[in-house]
Amino acid sequence: MKLRVEVDHNTYSALKEVEEEYREVLEEAINYGLVNKTTSFTRIKAGIYKAEREKHKLPSHYIYTACEDASERLDSFQKLKKRGRAYTDKPSVRRVTVHLDDHLWRFNLDKISISTKRGRVLISPTFPKIFWRYYNKGWSIASGARFKLLKGNVVELYVIFKKDVKPYEPKGFIPVDLNENSVSVLVDGKPILLETNTKRITLGYEYKRKSITTGRLTKDREVKRKLKRLREKDKKADVRRKLAKLVVVEAFKSRSAVVLEDLPRNTPEHMVKDVRDKQLRLRIYRSAFSSMKNAIVEKAGEFGVPVILVNPSHTSSTCPVHGTKIIYRPDGGDAPRVGVCEGGKERWHRDVVALYNLRKRAGDVSPVPLGSKESHDPPTLRSGRWLRAKSLHSIMNEDKMSEMKV
Asked: Which pick of 28, 126, 261, 284 has the fewest CB atoms within 10 Å?
């Protein structure tokens, strides 16, 4: 959680000294790791601790946390380099967020103290409502924290909440199938399709970027300002968070496990290798399948909901009843959603059949209803409705009431 506090000049200058020397130690730790080809915190600390301790008069634990910071940056850089997404020879230290361990800071609802070269400084933050929501529900403050200095004598403090949650023994399964523009969920044996509007958001912001940059340099100050104000990332993150909470809360109430496809990191690269349409390639790359999966896994960890990751291969192209291939023929579009089982000749919607296959691979032996002989679509919920819903069951109950009224 991020807390912003305006402090007096003396407190700010004391923290500024810490930040400047922390940056120097961090750069030395990164250089040592690069020269010795290691990302290990233990090896980096053993290599630079003595020299940096003599050079700087900081509390010793700042050297420990700087080495941890360097280890994380080097590890992240190596992963980017393997994926071909590193554009420099070594990680550059542009922004510094000072890491704090339990020796360097102490938390109290009245005052937060941080160690500096001049002794301990005290900060009195104002806690927002969301802080009290977590604090009063049994969450505890973690031993580690971070701070960053902003203009105007403002200190940005990052406080981390933690909660010890033990996963329960699941009584059922809720499979979730992730797609480019929707997410399908099987609740109480009933498949529903939640539209995420990812396609519309991606294309809308791409057209907006083109209108801003056409005929102008991207280094232009006005262009950079307009591009920075775009909120594509925030909108997609909002959808992921709300979807993850809906699914996990439903699983928690029914004491079920969430079943997801074990998607690899290179999912977009694998999906677009035979796609020539530039627009479709762009949409797939920015669909963020792994981010959606990670959001659900992270939220499940908060509630203690078990997550089962299964093999994603052929979940949409295999009949869960006969085990035969489902043939998808174009039905007015380039990506048909309804196919026919080679064995029983039933028609299956690809998002529905994926749910039953995921549940089956998770170990559920419940009978699977046969697909319809006619083309059909699962109930689809527009993003405007489910984004404001408190639970999936409430949506399903509303649909039943509307059907009764009709």
From this structure: 126
